[in-house]
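Just wondering, can you check both lines?
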Amino acid sequence: MPNIKSAIKRVKITKVRTLRNASAKSALRTALRKFEHALRERDMETAQTALHNATRSLDKAVTKGIVHRNYAARKKSRLTKRLHKAAI
């Protein structure tokens, strides 16, 4: 445990941010899973909505620094590609 006041504060801040980031990552993974589930069920309307929500979640995660922008771009591209392929 740190002895310096500023170091103690940094530990507290790190704990809070870690929890916030974990929650945001979990929400992102849930959005991605909902898309996967809709795609597996061949429900194209729900899949389209889920893709929109997943894309939005990825964009938000990028702005909050939770995931890298290239990861989000790659993920969005692959998800969109899968939706178009399933629609055929």
Notes: The chain has one domain: 5-87.
